[in-house]
Amino acid sequence: MRDLHGWPDPGPIRIGVYVCHCGANIAGTVDVRAISEYAASLPGVAVSRDYKYMCSDPGQALIKDDIASHDLNRVVVASCSPLLHELTFRRALNAAGINPFFLQMVNIREHVSWVHLDKRAATEKTQALIRAAVRRVSLHKPLQKRRVPINPNVLVVGGGIAGIHAALTLADAGKQVHLVEREPTIGGHMAMFDKTFPTLDCAACILTPKMTAVGSHPNIALRTYSEVVQVDGYIGNYKVKIKRKPRYIIDELCLGCQECIAACVYKEGKAPDEFNLGLSKRKPVYLPFPQAVPQKVVIDPETCIEFKSGKCKKTCIEACGERKAIDFKQKETFEEIEVGAIILATGFKTFAPVRNPNCGYGRYQNVYTSLEVERLINASGPTSGEVVLRDGKRPHSVGIIHCVGSRDANTNRWCSKVCCMYSLKLAHLVKERTGAEVFNFYIDMRTPGKGYEEFYDRLLDEGVHFVRGRVAEVSDWAVHPSEEGKLVIRAEDTLAGFVRRIPVDMVILSVGLEPQADAQDVRRLFNISCSSEGWFLERHPKLAPVSTFTEGVFIAGACQGPKDIPESVAQAGAAAAEALALIDAQFVEMEPYTASVLEEECSGCKSCIPLCPYQAIAFLEDKKKASVNEVLCKGCGTCVAGCPSGSIQQNFFEDEEIFAEIEGVLSYA
Amino acid sequence: MKFAYYPGCSLRGTGRAYEESLLAVFRALDIELEELDDWNCCGATTYMSVDELTSYALAGRNLALAERKRQDIVAPCAACYLVLNKTQHYMEDYPEIKLTVTRALAAIGLTYDNHVRVRHPLDILLNDVGLKAIAAKVKRPLKGLKVAPYYGCQIVRPYSTFDDQRNPTSMDRLLEACGAKMVHYSLKTRCCGGSQKGTLPEIGLDLIHYLLSEAHKYGAEAIATVCPLCQFNLESFQKESGDRHHPISIPVVYFSQLLALALGAPANKIGLQRSLVPIGSVLAEKEIAYA
Amino acid sequence: MPDLHTELARPQAVFEPRIVAFFCNWCTYLAADLAGTSRMKYAPNVRVVRLMCSGRVDPQFVLAAFAGGADGVLIGGCHPGDCHYQEGNYKTLRRFRLLQRMLRQMGIEYERCRLEWISAAEGDRVRTVINDMVEKVRVLGPLDLKLPEELVETILSEEVAV
Questions:
Q1: Closest of B143, B158, B149 to residue B89, by C-alpha
Q2: Which residues on chain A are in Cβ contact (under 8 Å) with C35?
């Protein structure tokens, strides 16, 4: 049909066209010989061959030899998808001494021979694609991959088990790590647990050595009670601003002796203790928990008399004596650091069961969350390890309700993965401590890890009762005298086939895991995405679980999705390894598909600037022109398409190149 | 404040005490009501089970009538409230239903474009008038009268626009503002059986018994209800359910009767004389004068 | 004299639409590859031009395709929210809406220019969309753009920015 331009004079362009048979994969449908002959007839084509396996060593040798002997300066390979072998052939060109971007590939396998039955039509289509590629490749310009140096320091955000493990791994490898944690101490949720499943290891015993290692590691700069407030830059070159909240204690001078706490004018704590989830009270000056790292107290301005009235006796300062570590005038401070890679390990929060009114949390006092019970069981918790009700009495019967805030269309649809196991753990521990009858109400029993199913068996042997049924209601309404004074759990026992009413003294809600409340704010700060549920989004759910689509930013642990401790540690190690791989390469190579502004033609209309999702386009005030930051540019081409004057071009996807391809595919009848 | 008043069939029948007392409450609080002209039966829950599409058209006619004057509807009867709300929701969610109802209304020269809100008296009293305003107008404080607040199911499920689905507190707060004391009552929204007393009497009586005995257990001197059928069930079958379980006698009134009393309405004009289990002796004991 | 039976037996020449497709590298192109590895079969009328992002699709490409003889143009990108470059596909959508109206005014029917969101896992969708589009365009017939030669020259000319 139309070939309006005729064919432009190829001039010095000398193209080699290689048509792959791919065994019978291509040759079985496409007449490769005819294609090769057709290609030879096109202007600019100096050599045209067909060969059984172009990606093989002899296949590549064919190209390299031809480049030398036929003085080729452009290459077209018609074979499988470029997503498979573009790199292979680019390397071949490079090895042969010509710019690797003088290659154009034609997909005649996945897009032609494997999807069309009609051989004539397939061959015709191939001719059109070859023609397009030959026209396009003539216009290719030499390009270089960009190299950007990498700052070897790493920022780890979040001091839970994942953040701790990542920081230690990197620090042991000799890298400088900045570990930022928003609470006054590291440790995260794991520090609140008593025992960990399935081995019933004491959580503190396995965690505190790692915490101590972090606190004393020469390569880790630990910043607790701090938050990241600004992130600028790009892979290898991040500038991060950290805000340090005032403890009103001078870190370097506090020895953690806690005399100030003993001396405080408050004889008893009046403020709800956060670490004990409000089950006990603390004074305004406090240590979050005994093994806190760093071992430094904190003063809470909301509850301290000195802040409220300015008239406190300040017995704490007196007790601190010569150390003079207390400073009521302390202000928040800011610090800027430079790092090459960032690992986010910001963890999770638990589901707030008031959102699920049927379970009676907040309505009946003896309904607890699983995390609250962890604190009760913990020897350094609010009841010194005694599992007792609000009135101090021991429960004789306990109901544990699975899936509160998980697998629920009304609240969260996902399965929180760890609750079945921790519910079994709590069943065991509660039974051990109290001798009570324990009932677990579950939908399915999910125990997939190492030793997990065996742990379930053990519980069955210990005489814990299991009712397979979703709990409909927890109520104090007694129908039968035996229910008086108890909480009645109503659930359909689906295995037995009837509705049960089970009266218990204590109800434990196995609350699910959710993304942190500020997950959206955090992810925007670091320019990554979240899934629709709010978990940080991994680059690929199967093959890249710890990297994100933002290069240089990695994720690890429960912030990526509900998971248990071994998985969090594994991901932390993986993220650290990927960060190390990045850093130890010392520089990173970026594809050259970036955009650039042709300054003479830019009219300064600023249309392109808001189009860029990476804020890679700046407006140069002095020249009144747009300018693309090549390092920030990811090469999507949106600004190129949006420029009204056509003064932005994209490497390898220039307008002329695309137009040539369009003409090529259409100009064959 | 002006609303289109939709009494529904029950407030002119067994629920007369509800209407009398509620109108007294609205008068005392200067809320203007204009009875919806030519309103028809909403079909309640029964019609919907028989012929669903027609029931939406039936209920929809009332919405269309109210829309003509661009007035919001107050529907005191819990079933009417639910049916009207349901019709609105279903018309928005299901185009087929909207189409059917629109056609039916068009056949009688009416249209409906979802410009009407269907409100419950508790909602209006709590959110539009406010507890402070009501407390200021109390003339006969209820002097700690112990009340079990019984909401029933229809005004909180499935739609709970103004209160919690499991543990509602709107009625609690209104009555407390009048000086009453709510007793602990975990069965606030438990089913009274509805029409089951007629079809499956044993089950109906059991459900009624649970509600009565729980109120009695916590020392309630009266049960306050919002729904004519709940009120009917709980009051009328105390003897029968007593025979089946154990006898309990406890006055069952509408929340509006207690409110009207507190706001100073003449006691013989708020339907208290219609009660099968009179509340008079309880009020006398508490020296809540109502003569 | 040609044999009548042979003449009638020969299939009538069927109009085969020519469609140019612009597929984004990360989603739709991958999906097309997946359709290939899964050996799905579809109509051979579509020629794919690979771009990094559907956001790169300049309305001029579409015009050039129609001017160059295409009967249809298909643009494939990632689902909203999934764009590899965060938001490129939203920009595509905006431009596409305006472009369609413009094409309509030029006498090019809506069905000839199509925007589809196809994720990397949706190989089957590539097949169904292509087959569907080929049939729809076949029914519409060849695009008979009676543009004066000079105007076509100008559109395809590399010197003019539209």
A1: B158
A2: 110, 115
Cβ atoms < 10 Å from Cβ of B229: 23
Pick the CATH number of A15-145 from 3.40.50, 1.10.287, 2.40.50, 3.30.1490: 3.40.50
Reported as half-sphere exposure (CB side, CA atoms, 13 A), residue A21 has a value of 12
Cβ <8 Å between A357 and B186: no
Which among A171, A244, A240, A238 has a CA at the least distance from the CA of A210? A171
Calpha distance A537→A520 (Å, rounded): 11
Backbone angles phi, psi at A207, to 5 degrees: -90, -40
Please give the average per-residue pLDDT across A496-501, as a whole number. 96
Look up the CATH architecture of domain C16-158: 3-Layer(aba) Sandwich (3.40)
Are A and B close enough to touch, i.e. 3+ CB pairs under 8 angstroms?
yes
Q: Does A79 touch chain C (CB under 8 A)?
A: no
Strand A487-493 relative to strand A298-299: parallel, antiparallel, unpaired?
A: unpaired
Q: Phi, psi at residue A155, to the nearest 5°?
A: -105, 130
Q: What is the pLDDT of residues B134-192, one digit of tens each?
A: 999 999 999 999 999 999 999 999 998 899 988 999 999 999 999 999 999 999 999 99
- What integer pLDDT is reported at residue A560 of this predicted model? 97
Kindly report the pTM of this predicted structure.
0.79
The per-residue pLDDT for C162 is 40
Check whether A406 has a pLDDT greater than 70: yes
Q: Which CATH number fits domain B2-119: 1.20.1050.140, 3.30.390.30, 3.20.20.370, 3.40.50.2000?
A: 1.20.1050.140
Taking contacts as CB-CB distances below 8 angstroms, the residues of chain B near A411 are none
Query: Residue B111 CB: number of other CB atoms within 10 A?
Result: 10
Q: Mutating which of B156, B186, B191, B206 best tests the A interface, going by the most A Cβ atoms within 10 A?
A: B186
Q: What is the pLDDT of residues B197-253, one digit of tens each?
A: 899 999 999 999 999 999 999 999 999 999 999 999 999 999 999 999 999 999 999
Bridge partners (DSSP) of residue A617 are A628
| Alpha-carbon dihedral angle through residues B32, B36, B37, B43, given to the nearest 10 degrees | -160
pLDDT per position as a tens digit, B58-102 = 999 999 999 999 999 999 999 999 999 999 999 999 988 999 999
What local confidence, expressed as pLDDT, does residue C14 receive? 84
- Answer whether C101 touches A (CB < 8 Å): no
| Candidate from C85, C127, C152 with C-beta closest to A4 | C152
Whose tokens are 């067909």? That residue is: A50
Say how far apart CA A203 and CA A167 lie, in whole Å: 19
